[in-house]
């Protein structure tokens, strides 16, 4: 039996705005590519909610990792964001383990919620940065738009800094030796040109890397390609698209 309406609830004939109508019928999730992302208007701006519904959020990266990930793989993701890619892998691919690294502490709870909502139990979320060497915690600047947060203190007025957090810095090679990943997924807003050349690990079978030429320029792109070639991976144009570059070991 339905509970009676509270006397404080007002009944109105006013039309419900479209966005409110959507959340009234689907109050808790946004479906996307066969997974469910928690509805969180404070975190997910309208453009992101729309791209999730259209299955276009991180589209090229998602397409590539769905082709690459195999049964039994251990996947390491640098730059987990809202946990979309790690959730997608956990739901659709029978991998052994996923290690998702995200520097923004304000996103960690949401990533955990996304994993729990989709029954992903083989993912570990790390609130840490990887660097060429272990160091003291570094400043991370939280902005009004959480997804625009970064280690860069500069930002537009619409994305003003609201807090500064101290984030753990781990050594990339120590981390890779401990986790022993087969597949690398990397989307770290230009830091790939500094971090990946320091990698000394030959256990990768494949990598999906979103490049940021606007941040790193031609020398940075060349550094990433050289780093992947040094790791024994060759550029694979068939599964690459625009700024998403796929590398794989010959098989």
From TrEMBL:
In which domain of life is the source organism classified? Bacteria
What are the UniProt keywords, alphabetically? Methyltransferase, S-adenosyl-L-methionine, Transferase
Q: Could you tell me which InterPro entries the record lists for this protein?
A: FkbM_mtfrase, SAM-dependent_MTases_sf, TRM5-TYW2-like_MTfase
User: Does this UniProt record's set of keywords contain Repeat?
Assistant: no
Q: Which Pfam families match?
A: TRM5-TYW2_MTfase
Aminoacyl-tRNA synthetase recorded as keyword: no
What are the GO BP annotations of this UniProt entry? methylation
User: Residue ranges of the TRM5/TYW2-like methyltransferase domain?
Assistant: 61-123
Give the residue ranges for region: Disordered. Answer: 1-27
SUPFAM superfamilies in alphabetical order: S-adenosyl-L-methionine-dependent methyltransferases (SSF53335)
The family database entries (CDD domains) matched by this protein are listed as: AdoMet_MTases
Question: GO: which molecular function terms?
Answer: methyltransferase activity
Q: Which NCBIfam families match?
A: fkbM_fam (TIGR01444)
Q: What is this protein called?
A: FkbM family methyltransferase
